[in-house]
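Field reference: sequence -> structure
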Amino acid sequence: MARIHPTAIVEEGVTLGDRTSIWDNVHVRGPASIGADCIIGEKTYIAYGVNIGDRVKLNAFVYICTGVTLGDGVMVSAHATFTNDRYPRATTPDLAHLRSSEPDADTIATNVGPGATIGAAAVIGPGSHIGAFAMVGMGSVVTTPVASHALVVGNPARQIGWVCACGPRIEIDDSRGTCSHCGRSYAESPAGLVEQ
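Structure field:
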C-alpha cells in the first residue's frame, strides 16, 4: 500500500505501486502511473499521462509534464523541470483565446532510461530522451538526446564523459573501459556504453 501525506493531492485515475511514498504538497494529476517503492518529494508536480517506473526517487520541487516516462531506478534531483511543448504559447495568435493545456500535435514525449540521474535544477527539453544510466549534471539544459551512460553538463548540455551504472566516471581507452569503483567493463556503441 502507498503512503500519501495528508497535504498531497492525488487525483482520481492515478495508479500507485506498493510502498510508494508521496510527500507533502505533492500534486499528481490523473491519469498517471507511479510504480512500487518510489519516493515523490515534497511540492513535486506530476502531470496527467506521466508514467514512472519502480524504485524512482523524485526530490523536492520537481516538475514533470505530460508525455514523460521515467524508467525503473531513475533519480530526479530537486528543482528539475521537464518541458514538452515545441512551440509554447499562452494564447492563440490573435491573442483572443487561451490555448488549451491538453496535449496536441506539438506536444513531444520524453523518455528517461532505467537508472539515469537528472541533476538538481536541470531542464529537460521536449523529446530529449535520456539513455539508461546517463547522468545529467546540475543546472544543465538538455535539448538533444543523451546516450546511455553519457555524462552531460552545461547550457546547452554537452557530453564530457561516461559514467558507470554505479555512478563514477569511466575512462575510455580504445572504445573500452572498466569502472575503478565496481569493476564493470564497458564498450562504446552508437547508442552509448554497453556493459560487457
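Note: The chain has a mean pLDDT of 97.
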